[in-house]
Write a structure and sequence with these properties.
With about 450 residues, this protein is α+β, with helices and mostly antiparallel strands. Helix content is about 65%, strand content about 10%.
Length: about 450
């Protein structure tokens, strides 16, 4: 019975860590990725930032169109400057001459007129239309907002690629911790069977009682390891669900056989290139933005031309007769000639900003190249680690089978049996970890080289 159980246990180990069938994709994982892209909180925030940049662009484009406003003013005035109109001084000498010539008093003397500069009541109601005709800063401001919109969209793409890699790594890590937990669970079953055999051998006086205590100690140690592995699996599940914006205890589906995964290339992907990385597109847009900002600063030196049309009514009261309305049409030219060298300083700042963005672009390209090279060689090292882990497990299995037969026959001490069992368990755990770390390394390389297609 023990040998039958041992064969089942070894077969179980083999199924857990055997080389997986290579799949072109994983339907469940792909569905999780789609779900995460739709629901991840950080990605939602970046989408909202992108919407904000769209509205800022619409606002900038609105400056090209005319503005229409209604302006109403009703004034009550009292006091203020007094204006004298010398009508008496002008006409009284004339009137005196006429009276003398006619011998009459038909032309009386009159007083000078006095009135306030501000009328006691006055109203002005008008519509005002302003149309920019030549405003270079409006054009360049619109282009800057366009670049900001593109940068906002690229930020979404950058995080989306990062999120795909994180979801994949979290998924593989969850499976890895589950495999480790499964191996330790089956090890405990194996140890329980070993305890039963040891008790039988002790009853037949083939081994001493300390063998039983050592077997129980091994079971306790394995149960402690199981508790730690279970905790890691729960944490891995919580992190995976966090990326998908789901409750931490949401079940994760890995039970369709595809959890063995995925795609492991057999040859190096020859072209080590980062041209597809969105970070380079972002820094390129930042350079374009800096160039247009420099042009925006330069545009302050040029004249600005604006058309203004006003139509309304004026008077001391509101009336709508033919003589009450008015129309004003103006062409306004504004040309700043000197502003205390402020433009010169602003222009230098804009040029420095452009130089900085060019350096950032160069630095980003070099960093991405280094990141991609590191990700590739980490993946290559992980592949070699899997090969070594498979050989280690094969040797550990063979050693355990030989030791188990000798132990069952009473020809091997318990310490040798425990050492063989521990080596087999550790080899199985090591291979499970190595294999899924290989998948995680490939996910990181896939992100670094921009291999994942969102189509």
């Amino acid at each position: 019975m023990f040998m039958r159980f041992l064969k089942c246990a070894i077969l179980s180990y083999t199924l857990i860590i055997m080389p997986p069938v290579v799949h072109a994709g994983n339907a469940i994982l792909d569905e999780y990725i789609r779900y995460g892209i739709e629901n991840n909180i950080a990605l939602q925030q970046k989408r909202e930032n992108y919407k904000m940049s769209l509205e800022l662009l619409n606002e900038a484009r609105g400056l090209f169109y005319p503005s229409l406003s209604l302006n109403m003013r009703y004034t009550l005035a009292s006091g203020g400057r007094v204006i004298e109109f010398p009508v008496g001084d002008l006409l009284n000498p004339v009137y005196s001459t006429l009276n003398m010539l006619t011998g009459t008093q038909d032309f009386p003397q009159i007083e000078n007129e006095f009135f306030y500069f501000y009328r006691p009541k006055e109203q002005e109601t008008k519509f005002r239309v302003v149309q920019p005709l030549m405003h270079p800063e409006i054009w360049f401001n619109s282009r800057i907002r366009e670049h900001e919109k593109e940068i906002g969209y690229i930020d979404i793409e950058i995080y989306r690629r990062f999120l795909v890699a994180e979801i994949k790594k979290a998924y593989y890590n969850y499976i890895k911790t589950g495999k480790v937990e499964q191996i330790i669970t089956e090890t405990i079953e194996l140890l329980m069977e070993n305890l039963r055999v040891t008790e039988a051998l002790a009853a037949n006086e083939m081994v001493t009682e300390d063998y039983i205590h050592r077997s129980r100690a091994e079971i306790a140690e394995a149960e402690q390891q199981l508790a730690g592995a279970s905790g890691k699996r729960q944490v891995a599940a919580a992190w995976f669900n966090f990326l998908l914006n789901r409750p931490a205890d949401t079940p994760i589906d890995v039970n369709n056989g595809q959890d063995r995964l995925l795609f492991v290339p057999n040859e190096a992907d020859g072209a080590l290139s980062v041209e597809g990385r969105e970070e380079l597109q972002k820094t390129s847009r930042m350079i374009d933005l800096a160039v247009d900002y420099e042009r925006l600063v330069l545009s302050d030196r040029y004249p600005k031309l604006t058309a203004v049309v006003e139509y309304g009514i004026q008077g001391t009261t509101y009336s709508f007769g033919r003589d009450d309305d008015f129309v004003l049409a103006s062409i306004v030219l504004t040309w700043p000639l000197f502003e205390g060298f402020q433009n010169r300083a602003s222009l230098q700042q804009a040029r420095i900003r452009r130089n900085i963005t060019e350096l950032v672009h160069q630095e980003t390209q070099e960093k991405l190249n280094l990141e991609m090279i590191k990700a590739w060689y980490d993946f290559e090292a992980a592949r070699k680690a899997v090969d070594a882990a498979e050989s280690r497990l094969k040797s550990a299995n063979s050693a355990f089978r030989i030791t188990e037969r000798r132990y069952s026959a009473g020809q091997a001490p318990i310490i040798e049996y425990i050492d063989a069992r521990t080596s087999m368990t550790n080899a199985g755990i090591n291979l499970a970890i190595s294999r899924y770390e290989l998948y995680e390394k490939y996910a990181e390389y896939e992100r670094a080289a921009a291999l994942y297609s969102f189509d």
